[in-house]
Every structure is written in structure tokens, then in C-alpha cells.
TrEMBL record:
Gene3D superfamilies: ABC transporter involved in vitamin B12 uptake, BtuC. The lineage of its organism: unclassified sequences, metagenomes, ecological metagenomes. It comes from freshwater metagenome. This is Unannotated protein. It is found in: Membrane. The chain crosses the membrane at residues 12-36, 57-81, 93-111, 123-152, 179-211, 223-242, 248-266. It holds the Pfam family ABC-3. GO terms for cellular component: ATP-binding cassette (ABC) transporter complex. GO terms for biological process: response to zinc ion; transmembrane transport. Keywords: Membrane, Transmembrane, Transmembrane helix.
Length: 293
């Protein structure tokens, strides 16, 4: 018991524990919509794209690098949506071209000019112990914004996630909903970048949502389970990183992976069948509203 309570005597660890848990909850929550839309790759792509803005913004206004990176990420997300809608280039191809080019630009700028802000390694792998009060406030604000967006636009999001064509002819402004979702996703990635890092944030968008899908056919329960898995991964991963002496982002993702393996062993073929269709279809029971049985 003493070994468990020992880290809590350090203020930096308590702060890190809160931030890691909140970041896991945020990514687990928003990740459900990304995974069910068959856009798992976009989390990976946008995190790399934001890294490009992260580097570029520091060259011109180091004190506002987070704002610059956020605007860069939002612009990349909207560009991906616009290019993909043209029909000639698929969403996966648009993500690959736009985001990898942005990431390459970021690496080139770091290599050529260096940086006056957070280090290259911190941007790639996260540095939760160095997170500032302003960044914590930003993470809380983005979490509240994401929750408000999802619950205020819940029916429209549900409709566009499962059947965008029917939603469009039914009067739902699919383009606007998708653009808003991409903006919220970009902000969520930016807010958690310093916690988990560019290379790992995409994993925490996908793993909790996939685990939740393996456990339930209800969309409402999937949101809840994915959020809980994200919180658990962040909380336990932070503790594990303290004792293992490795970056927090690495351990958070590893804990999530362990949860996935355990759930896979528990659900067996049934869980695999549920998750196998994530990128192609959604079973009818998944349309059950939040709170429904």
C-alpha cells in the first residue's frame, strides 16, 4: 500500500495523474466517432500534421506555438475533408498526402532552425511532467467543448456517422457536422499532444473505441465504455511510467493494449466479429440512443 501511495506525495505526479486520466477520457470519447466512421487513420495523420504546425509556429511566434499548431491542424483537417469529397481522391489518400507532408515539414524545420519551445523528443513522445497550468486549462476546456458538441449535436452526429447519404437528403448538414467534428478532433489531439506525444496519440483514439465495440452493440454504452477504458489507461499508465521510468505516453498506450488483449481473450470470436466490421458497417442495435436498454 505504501508503494502505491508514495507517488501521491509528489505534486507533479498528482497533476500528471489528473492530466493523463482526462486525456485518456477525451481521446476515448471522441475516438468512438472516428473509428465508427472508418477514419482510424486520420488520428495518426492529424497528429503528424499538427506536429508540422507545432514546428512552424515556433519559428515566427514561439509564445503562441499552440495556437499556431491548432490552426494548422484545423486547416489540415478541413483540407482532408474537402479533397476527399471531390471524389477523385479517397479520404485515406488525402490523409496520407496532406499529413505526411506536414510532418516532414515539421521535421525539416526542427532540423534546420531548431526550436525555442518544447523539445523535439517531448513533441514526439509527450512530457506530462512538464505540462503547464495553461495547458491543463486548455485540456479541460477542450474536454468540455467536446462533450458539449457531442451531446448538443448527438442525433446529427449519429445520423451522419451511420448513413451520411440518407442524412444529407433528410436535411442534415452533413458537411458542416463533419467539419465541426474534424475541428473538435484537431483540438483534442492538440490538447493531448504534450501528454501522449505525436507518435502515440492515434493509438489512444483507436484502442478504447475498439475495446468498447468488442463489448457492446449499443452506441451509448460504447461511448461510456470507451471513455472508461481511456481513463483507466491514463491512470494506470501514469502509475506504471513512474515505476518503470519510461515516458508516460508509452505506458498509457501499452496499458490500453493490455486491456485490448484481455477483452479479446474474454470475448473471443464474438468480439472479433463485432470489431471486424468497424470500417464497413454498424449493426442496427448500435443505433440505440444513450440511456436506452
Amino acid at each position: 500500500m505504501e508503494s502505491i501511495l508514495e507517488p501521491l506525495t509528489y505534486a507533479f505526479f498528482v497533476k500528471g495523474l489528473f492530466v493523463a486520466s482526462l486525456a485518456g477520457a477525451l481521446l476515448g470519447f471522441i475516438g468512438v466517432f472516428i473509428v465508427l466512421r472508418g477514419m482510424s487513420y486520420i488520428g495518426h495523420g492529424l497528429s503528424h500534421s499538427i506536429f508540422g504546425g507545432f514546428a512552424a509556429a515556433q519559428l515566427f511566434a514561439a509564445q503562441f506555438y499552440l495556437i499556431g499548431a491548432g490552426l494548422w491542424g484545423i486547416a489540415s483537417a478541413l483540407a482532408i475533408t474537402t479533397v476527399a469529397k471531390r471524389g477523385r481522391v479517397g479520404a485515406d489518400a488525402a490523409i496520407g498526402v496532406i499529413t505526411t507532408a506536414s510532418f516532414a515539414l515539421g521535421v525539416a524545420l526542427f532540423a534546420k532552425f531548431g526550436t525555442s519551445g518544447p523539445s523535439f523528443e517531448n513533441a514526439l513522445f509527450g512530457s506530462i511532467l512538464g505540462i503547464t497550468t495553461e495547458q491543463i486549462i486548455g485540456l479541460i476546456a477542450v474536454t468540455l467543448l467536446t462533450a458539449a458538441f457531442v451531446f448538443l449535436r448527438y442525433r446529427a452526429l449519429l445520423f451522419t456517422t451511420f448513413d451520411p447519404d440518407v442524412a444529407d437528403v433528410s436535411g442534415v448538414r452533413v458537411g458542416r457536422i463533419e467539419a465541426m467534428l474534424m475541428i473538435v478532433l484537431s483540438l483534442a489531439i492538440l490538447a493531448t499532444l504534450t501528454v501522449i506525444g505525436v507518435t502515440l496519440v492515434a493509438a489512444m483514439l483507436v484502442i478504447p473505441a475498439v475495446v468498447a465495440r468488442m463489448l457492446t452493440d449499443s452506441f451509448g454504452r460504447m461511448l461510456a465504455i470507451s471513455t472508461i477504458v481511456g481513463v483507466f489507461s491514463g491512470f494506470v499508465g501514469m502509475y506504471a511510467s513512474y515505476y518503470a521510468g519510461v515516458p508516460s505516453g508509452t505506458m498509457i498506450v501499452l496499458v490500453g493494449a493490455v486491456v485490448f488483449v484481455i477483452v479479446l481473450a474474454f470475448t473471443g470470436g464474438r468480439g472479433l466479429r463485432r470489431s471486424a466490421g468497424l470500417d464497413r458497417h454498424v449493426d442496427a442495435p448500435l443505433l440505440t440512443p444513450i440511456g436506452a436498454k
